[in-house]
Design a protein that fits this description.
The complex is a heterodimer of chains A (112) and B (113). Chain A is mostly beta strands and 112 residues long. Chain A is 0% helix and 57% strand. In chain A, the strands form 2 sheets. In chain A, strands 2, 4, 5, 6, 9, 10 and 11 form a 7-stranded mixed β-sheet that branches. The model of chain A has no long low-confidence stretch (mean pLDDT 94). With 113 residues, chain B is an all-beta fold. In chain B, the strands form 2 sheets. In chain B, strands 2, 4, 5, 9, 10 and 11 form a 6-stranded mixed β-sheet that branches. The chains are: A mainly beta (112), B mainly beta (113).
Chain lengths: 112, 113
């Protein structure tokens, strides 16, 4: 099975500061990779997904961007954080959509 | 149905009760339906992935069914135990060439001893 490494676990950042969250995958190659956010009281919202190196699809226009510089590395970034970017961010990996997805431990981001 | 919807939003049952949840999804564009269990302070873990209309899957006391023509899936828990307390998520993947996996908001289950 796959192992998803996601860090940091918690992060407190001031408004206007940059953000970089990293997710790496072990145990598979060429997975589909996903970034989700759960805002307070809400469900998991799909932010970005990638089917290969350099291929990024955005589901929701926002203050964030994603990149996939290597096959098993997925990065979520922001140049200037907003208060509304606070939430719980999860990275997920799935070899094919008819197979289970594996998740990282998540990052709790608080923008102050 | 344009999005993935789950009901009820939350459920509180007694140990030994059997319970079930519903997941509704767009029937017009379907590739796969996933069920996950998400315990507090842990990562979501897969329960089932179903692709065929009429699929029924079982893992211990938990089972799920799938109706792709009408766009719904049921998750059943027989004889609930306190350790079943978690949020149960379903996710839909469309057959449209997009590799999205869209989650519902989940059903939060609390099982009291």
């Amino acid at each position: 099975s796959q192992t998803i490494h996601q860090w940091p676990a918690t992060l407190v950042q001031p408004v206007g500061s940059p953000l970089s969250l990293e997710c790496t995958v072990e145990g598979t190659s060429n997975p589909n990779l996903y970034w989700y956010r759960q805002a307070a009281g809400r469900g998991l919202q799909l932010l970005f997904y990638s089917v290969g190196i350099g291929q990024i699809s955005s589901e929701v226009p926002q203050n964030l961007s994603a990149s996939r510089p290597q096959d098993r590395q997925f990065i979520l970034s922001s140049k200037k954080l907003l208060l509304s970017d606070s939430g719980f961010y999860l990275c997920a990996s799935c070899v094919g959509l008819n197979t289970e997805a594996f998740f990282g431990q998540g990052t709790r981001l608080t923008v102050v | 149905i344009l999005n993935v919807e789950q009901s009820p939003q939350s459920l509180h049952v007694q140990e030994g009760d059997s319970t079930n949840f519903t997941c509704s999804f767009p029937s017009s564009n379907f590739y796969a339906l996933h069920w996950y269990r998400w315990e507090t302070a842990k990562s979501p873990e897969a329960l089932f992935v179903m692709t065929l209309n009429g699929d029924e899957k079982k893992k211990g006391r938990i089972s799920a069914t799938l109706n792709t023509k009408e766009g719904y899936s049921y998750l059943y828990i027989k004889g609930s135990q306190p350790e079943d307390s978690a949020t149960y998520l379903c996710a839909h993947s469309p057959d449209s060439g997009y590799s999205t996996l869209t989650f519902g908001k989940g059903t939060m289950l609390l099982v009291s001893p």
